[in-house]
Amino acid sequence: MAYYYYLISSLPSIKFDYPLPISYAQFLNQCEKEVSDSILIKLKHLTLGANDDGIPLEWSVFYSNLYNELNYQRALKLNRPQLYKKQDSLEIVTIVNQVLSAKNPLDAEIILLKSQFEFLDKIISTHYFDLQVLMVYAIKIKLKERYDLFNKESGKKEFKNLFMKINNIMQEL
After folding, report:
1. Per-position DSSP letters for 19-87, written without gaps between them
2. Cα–Cα distance list, 100 to 50, 63, 144 (Å)
3. 6-41 burial, b if ≥16 CB within 10 A, otherwise e?
4. Are 92 and 62 within 8 A, CB to CB?
5. pTM value?
6. Is residue 53 pLDDT above 80, yes or no?
7. Is residue 93 part of a domain?
8. In this structure, what are the phi and psi dihedrals at residue 121, rounded to the nearest 5 degrees?
9. Nearest to 119 by CA among 100, 102, 94
10. CA distance 68 to 97
11. Does some domain include residue 5?
12. Residue 37 falls within a domain, yes or no?
């Protein structure tokens, strides 16, 4: 098993409630010097729902179960057929209930992202300087970059623009 002592110890800490200290592109740039080509390719093509070698199995299972439960609960609310069975995990059901009871979509998305971030912190606590730590770090950057895209003011502005467009279309009818 490869260990990445220098690389991991040189990376800045990522905290959910603080500004992201490194972009994904900067992270990949640092990795180019320290990891094999095959690992670098995995990092370049990493997605949140990835199920590749090197990604902690706990994360893949958690992520899949979380979104399956979310789909199950949404289908239930809409009286549609449920494609997934209800999850047995109290942790996942609790997160999904919080998401579905959020007062707006932005709050729901933040609950999802924060719960995923916290789960990653929990599962990586027993790993040190290995590939799984590196993969979790990469996933955390992707989660944080997504979170940083959300801005209430630009969201309100976009909503008003869309509303005006719809209103104009409706008046033309």
Report:
1. --SS-HHHHHHHHHTTS-HHHHHHHHT--TT---TTS-HHHHHHHHHHHHHHHHHHHHHTT---SSPPP
2. 24, 17, 21
3. ebbeebeebebeeebebebeebbeebeebbeeebee
4. yes
5. 0.83
6. no
7. yes
8. -60, -40
9. 94
10. 13
11. no
12. yes
pLDDT tens digit sequence for 10-21 = 999 999 999 999
The letter for the amino acid at 163 is: F
What is the number of domains present in the chain? Answer: 1
- Domain interval for residue 50: 21-172
Residue 152 lies in a domain: yes
Chain-centre distance for alpha carbon 169? 36
Tokens for 156, please give them: 């309100």
Look at residues 93, 97, 90, 145 and name the one whose alpha carbon lies nearest to residue 117: 145
Q: What is the pLDDT of residues 150-163, one digit of tens each?
A: 877 777 777 788 88
